[in-house]
UniProtKB/TrEMBL annotation:
Name of the protein this chain belongs to: glucose-6-phosphate 1-epimerase
Function: Mutarotase that catalyzes the interconversion of beta-D-galactose and alpha-D-galactose during galactose metabolism. Beta-D-galactose is metabolized in the liver into glucose 1-phosphate, the primary metabolic fuel, by the action of four enzymes that constitute the Leloir pathway: GALM, GALK1 (galactokinase), GALT (galactose-1-phosphate uridylyltransferase) and GALE (UDP-galactose-4'-epimerase). Involved in the maintenance of the equilibrium between the beta- and alpha-anomers of galactose, therefore ensuring a sufficient supply of the alpha-anomer for GALK1.
Pfam families: Aldose_epim (PF01263)
Molecular function (Gene Ontology), one example: glucose-6-phosphate 1-epimerase activity
One GO location term (cellular component): cytoplasm
Catalysed conversion reaction: alpha-D-galactose = beta-D-galactose; alpha-D-glucose 6-phosphate = beta-D-glucose 6-phosphate
Listed GO biological process terms: carbohydrate metabolic process
Amino acid sequence: MAKQDASGFPAGDVVFMERGDGNSALLHLHGATLISWKCHGVENLFLSSTSVFDNKKAIRGGVPIAFPNFGPWPLGPQHGFARIKRWTLAVPPTKDAKGDILAVVTLEDDEETKAMWDYKFKLVYTLVLSEKSLMSTLVVHNTDTKSLGFTTLLHTYFRVADINTTTVHGLKGLKYTDKITGGQDVVEARDLVAVDRNYDRVYKDAPNVTVLSSSGEPARKIEIKTFNFPDVVVWNPWDVKAKEMGDFDDEGYKEMLCVEAGKVVNPVTLTAGAQFECSQTFTSML
Ligand SMILES: O=P(O)(O)OC[C@H]1O[C@H](O)[C@H](O)[C@@H](O)[C@@H]1O
């Protein structure tokens, strides 16, 4: 398995949050990519063992942030630049009276971002680690004197013991676009969505709670509660695409599922000085 604890990284590259009861989180400042969330000692995030940590390429796994664009982008790299920029640690891990840990990282425009996307902005990403939960809040500030538009998404790679026992609840009745087959939107008929091939589906207008369940050892049941993320992308590259990606374990598709909270179908428009807040909270229900 990939290095998923703080000891494998130069100290200045990662932010380690630890409650001391088997609950911890590890964020890499490259892309503000959360690369580990352990709940009672169980790792819930998938990180490819072949992920490249060169502070250039996006980290393959954890929770990369897509901003200011989800998907192919004519102005710059796929999924935007937030996942490949170095973020700044604004508030180092701080414990409150309940024992919860808070940390804040930020990203602001610079010459490189403005060459692609000519706007001034500030992103503030706040993590709060509780006993069974991790809340991640992204606030986008328009610090420019003109309006800007964007799409954004938290690209969570969940770790599961066995994809064949994994389901996602909460998507029934929603329309989705299937990016693999193309064509018309389809209505999801299943209460429990199981993934048995290459999936790349964008579910629209989802309720704010979905639940990922997986048996095997260890079993997992994780509630994903969102705010201002109306879309859910379900992605698994499966065997052929996994092999095609240089930074994805050949067999890794059997041990992961991406359930991505997004604001991707309808972009956000922010007037000068305005801000937009969105969040997702993982809660282990076991
Ligand atoms: O390889 P990446 O740029 O990290 O993208 C990985 C995947 O991200 C999302 O899930 C998209 O819906 C997929 O179309 C894409 O293949």
